[in-house]
Amino acid sequence: MKYEELNLNLHPSSYQELWSLDTNVVFLNHGSYGACPKAVLAMQQNLRSQLEQDPVNFFGRKWEPLIDNARSKLAAFIHTDVQNLVFVPNATTAVNSVLRSLNFSPDDEILTTNHEYNACRNALDFIANRTGARVVVAKVPFPIESPQQVIAAVIGKISSKTRLALLDHVTSQTGLIFPIQQLAQELQVRGVETLVDGAHAPGMVHLNMQEIGATYYTGNCHKWLSAPKGAAFLYVRRDKHSQIHPLTISHGANSPRTDKSRFQLEFDWTGTDDPTAYMCIPEAIAFMDSLLSGGWTELMQRNHQLVLEGRQTLCDALEVQPPCPEEMIGSMAVIPMPASLERYNYMSLHDELFDKFGIQVQVVPWQESPRLLVRISAQIYNTLEEYQYLAKILKDLSYRNPG
């Protein structure tokens, strides 16, 4: 759908030319899969060319120094020791790796919330069905008034059988930043380990693994960090390294090397694949840091402020209330849809917005009222005009006769 066909008068951000995004689409969904800048993609293509020119030389000589460099730069970015990090293709793989490595029994309970990402909830159910462990769900209210409600809901479900808590740092469906540091501390004093699904966190909020204090933490680098697809990390606290194994057992399991831990030897090589996404993480960190004079701090603050303005624009147009306080929002915000749009399901509304109006935005089903949510993202290439356009279209649809 062309802007011209819609009689749009949107002024694209000057930063948009640094990405390969379709300029005929109002792209308000960076959160789902990220978007990789052209400069980072160019580096990845160069690495891929080197790989294909001589795969044996690349994997034999270049691969490990490049992986180690990427790990070192990422460790500095999230404030942890290099020894605690391994790369995985995505956060879901990391969650599965941890869950499959731990030996649960029928006496164990695994705690999570009703906001947990569906893929990871499925992994929990799979483990529970295999081991007899019980999944316990803490009901965090939405709309929500305070982070304390998250803490109260989670702590209220802990029992003497609770062994592990799987918690989002930033929830996918509702876009909430959970008070993960306080949660990890409260769980630790009660003898409960924490596995944090931080898929959205790197590049959206400042991360400090030492301060958070989780036993396990995973984050995607292809979302707000803007690395290529297939780049994520798993952090494991030092005393747990020997217990955690990758989903694929390969050469590292019996490697005679002693210069690296078994933990890293096993995860670093699980078989032949394309490792260039991991190798581009330093370039992505540096590129995004260079966009504004205040670096990452200013970028995160800018995106936060823009998504708040976008949220208010939508709430005003649709005459709905913001469902959470500003402190619980990073670079994504959810807006509840009014009853007048309940004739849509999440797919039909998404498809109409995209096919008829050229808007790419996440539409989310929710299990309670309001049952339909729109989740907007804010990256540096977005402008307030784009949210104003979305607000106008949604308002028009809400008044339109279904027939």
Question: What this model shows, in words?
Answer:
The protein is an alpha/beta fold. It folds into two domains: 4-28 and 294-399, Aspartate Aminotransferase, domain 1; 41-287, Type I PLP-dependent aspartate aminotransferase-like (Major domain) (Aspartate Aminotransferase, domain 2, 3-Layer(aba) Sandwich). Helices cover 41% and strands 14% of the residues. The protein has 14 helices and twelve strands. It has helices at residues 30-33, 38-53, 55-78, 91-101, 118-131, 147-155, 180-189, 209-212, 262-268, 276-279, 281-289, 295-318, 346-357, 384-399, and strands at 26-27, 85-88, 109-113, 134-138, 162-168, 193-197, 216-220, 232-236, 332-336, 359-360, 362-365, 372-377. The chain has a seven-stranded mixed β-sheet with strand order 2-8-7-6-5-3-4, with helices on both faces. A three-stranded antiparallel β-sheet has the order 9-12-11. Strand 5 (162-168), helix 7 (180-189) and strand 6 (193-197) form a beta-alpha-beta unit. Helix 2 runs antiparallel to helix 3 (55-78). The longest helix has 24 residues, at 55-78. The radius of gyration is 22 Å and the shape is globular. It starts with 25 loop residues before the first strand and ends with a helix. The mean pLDDT is 95.
